[in-house]
């Protein structure tokens, strides 16, 4: 019996649906559908526009100082992660202190991130790279908001300050920024790189040797007691005060921090860097970071490296926080630009060179 028209219509509709589905899948994979992805170059161009373009330097945290030291792991971190670097032992550390902002010669008296970047290396060459700020939270939680924040806070050339006509609508559309503003308004701005607590801010997924996974944020807590800069007279601070203080302090002896791993409680927000974890948490003392020597970027090993926080050892992985992937591509774009431009002289290196020439 010849097939009816109806019998032909059914497979034709099915084939049509499959073709549509494939076309949609292709469009999604190509980034034509779904949430618009922002590439690293766009993020870095927004940073350049905000801070003024400073070729040769990091597009954020441009002013820095290298250091070397060691991490002595207690072994307690093995309860959360199978990472070799959390097993009891001593591991070499390369690090970099920096201040937020894209101007490598800006003064130190600014209410900006005081920051540390670390690379811990295991005997088999495995690495754990981190970049941390002195605040437990970040102003925004996703990449479009980060780019919008750069645009909204770009100084107006006429006043040197953000244009209120652009900033006000941004703040209104981003109520999450308020938590960070409140934190900065009340927090102590450390008067030394050595007495700041440095926070991972983003959560990471730790997996132990039995395969159990937990979400963790961490912080490096200083041995040196916290003291603050005088917020009312930041302008009066000598240009390289914080960096020189660290050079002088290290000549007198090492600085130390305890690494605390903080495990998320059920219900903690783990995909938004704008939200702090409140109340008691299981906290593990994972070891001590000891800084023993500092070097200007010209002679240290921290300048020509990308402290991409997604370079992680086995046993530590990414959480669902979208900032992590964004950071990786932005750091990479910044690194590629500055690597192609060649390095420039650092603030503290210029100072030391002048002093030794005298
Ligand atoms: C979407 C969010 C973020 C973007 C787009 C971003 C962007 C950047 C860029 C472009 C650099 C320069 C990288 C290089 O040239 O090597 C940088 C450096 C840095 N960032 Fe971020 N960042 C973000 C979030 C964060 C967060 C949440 C933290 C703190 C937990 C942080 C801490 C740092 C530190 C410490 C450095 C300096 C690293 C070094 O010394 O090499 N950033 N950031």
Structural summary, described in words:
Residues 12-357 form the Catalase core domain. Keywords: Heme, Iron, Metal-binding, Oxidoreductase, Peroxidase. By secondary structure, the protein is of the alpha+beta class. Helices cover 31% and strands 22% of the residues. The chain has eight helices and ten strands. The protein has helices spanning 5-29, 40-51, 143-152, 164-173, 177-186, 241-252, 322-341, 347-357, and strands at 63-73, 89-99, 114-121, 127-133, 198-199, 204-207, 213-222, 255-263, 283-295, 316-318. Strands 1, 2, 3, 4, 5, 6, 7, 8, 9 and 10 form a ten-stranded antiparallel β-sheet that branches. β3 (114-121) and β4 form a beta hairpin. α2 (40-51) crosses α7 and α3 packs antiparallel against α4. It is globular, with a radius of gyration of 24 Å. It starts with a helix and ends with a helix. The site of protoporphyrin IX containing FE (HEM) has 32 residues, from α2, β2, β3, β4 and α3.
SSE order and pairing:
Elements: H1 5-29, H2 40-51, E1 63-73, E2 89-99, E3 114-121, E4 127-133, H3 143-152, H4 164-173, H5 177-186, E5 198-199, E6 204-207, E7 213-222, H6 241-252, E8 255-263, E9 283-295, E10 316-318, H7 322-341, H8 347-357
Antiparallel strand pairs: 1-2, 1-9, 2-3, 3-4, 5-7, 6-7, 6-10, 7-8, 8-9
Helix pairs in contact: 2-3, 2-7, 3-4
Bound molecules: protoporphyrin IX containing FE.
């Amino acid at each position: 019996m010849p097939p009816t028209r109806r019998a032909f219509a059914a497979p034709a509709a099915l084939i049509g649906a499959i073709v549509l589905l494939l076309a949609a899948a292709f469009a999604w994979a190509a980034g034509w559908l779904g949430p618009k992805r922002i590439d690293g170059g766009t993020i870095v161009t927004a940073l350049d526009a905000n801070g003024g373009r400073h070729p040769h330097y990091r597009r954020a945290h441009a002013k820095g100082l290298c250091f070397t030291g060691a991490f002595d792991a207690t072994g307690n971190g093995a309860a959360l992660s199978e990472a070799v670097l959390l097993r009891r032992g001593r591991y070499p550390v390369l690090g970099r202190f920096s201040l937020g902002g894209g101007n490598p010669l800006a003064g130190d008296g600014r209410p900006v991130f005081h920051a540390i970047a670390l690379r811990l290396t295991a005997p088999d060459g495995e690495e754990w790279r981190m970049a941390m700020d002195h605040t437990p939270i970040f102003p925004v939680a996703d990449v479009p908001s980060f780019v919008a924040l750069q645009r909204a806070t770009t100084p107006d050339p006429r006043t040197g300050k953000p244009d209120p006509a652009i900033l006000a609508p941004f703040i209104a559309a981003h109520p999450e920024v308020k938590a960070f503003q409140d934190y900065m308004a009340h927090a102590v701005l450390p008067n030394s790189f050595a007495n700041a607590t440095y926070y991972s801010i983003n959560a990471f997924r730790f997996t132990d040797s039995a395969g159990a996974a937990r979400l963790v944020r961490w912080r490096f807590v200083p041995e040196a007691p916290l003291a603050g800069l005088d917020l009312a007279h930041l302008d009066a601070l000598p240009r390289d005060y914080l960096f020189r203080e660290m050079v002088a302090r290290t000549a007198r002896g090492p600085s130390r921090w305890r690494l605390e791993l903080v495990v998320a409680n059920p219900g903690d927000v783990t995909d938004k860097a704008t939200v702090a974890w409140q109340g008691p948490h299981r906290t593990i003392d994972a070891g001590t970071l000891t800084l023993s020597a500092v070097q200007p970027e010209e002679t240290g090993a921290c300048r020509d490296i990308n402290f991409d926080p997604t370079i992680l050892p086995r046993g530590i992985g990414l959480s669902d926080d979208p900032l992590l992937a964004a950071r990786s591509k932005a750091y990479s774009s910044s690194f590629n630009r500055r690597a192609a431009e060649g390095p420039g002289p650092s603030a503290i290196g210029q100072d030391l060179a002048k002093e030794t020439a005298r």
